[in-house]
Each structure stands twice: as C-alpha cells, then as structure tokens.
Design goal:
The protein is mainly α and 75 residues long. The protein has one domain: Up-down Bundle (AhpD-like), CATH 1.20.1290. It has three helices and no strands. It is elongated.
Amino acid sequence: MREADRALCAHAIKLTHRQQEMTPADLDLLRAHGFDDIAIHDATQIIAFFNYITRVADGLGLEPEVFIDPPWGSR
C-alpha cells in the first residue's frame, strides 16, 4: 500500500472514530501526500456518508442485504 493510501485510511479512521479531534493539520498531512482540496473534500464526503448511512441502518435495526457478507466473515 502506498503511503498516500495509508494517510487517507488514517484520515478515514480518525474521522470515523475521533472526529472531534480533527484539525487543519490533518488536511495538511493529506496535502503533503499529494491530495488536493477537491480530493480531500470528495474523500471526506464519502467517509462521512458511509458513517451516516451505517448509523441510520444500525439505529433502525436494519439487517444487511443477503448478498452482503458481514464484515466478520460469517453469516
């Protein structure tokens, strides 16, 4: 995995689990790995959407579609 990919994954993890700790330095780190502001914006929107939609599904007790394997690898 490229270092840029690792930086983006770290951004996603922090935005998902510790969003209150996000600072402009987090964006600067992505920029240092070659991401421009449009890419950062788009990635953040996608990360936030997945966080939102899974919380809605979990909050409503929705079950995943039968064709989607659970993340833990068993049905």
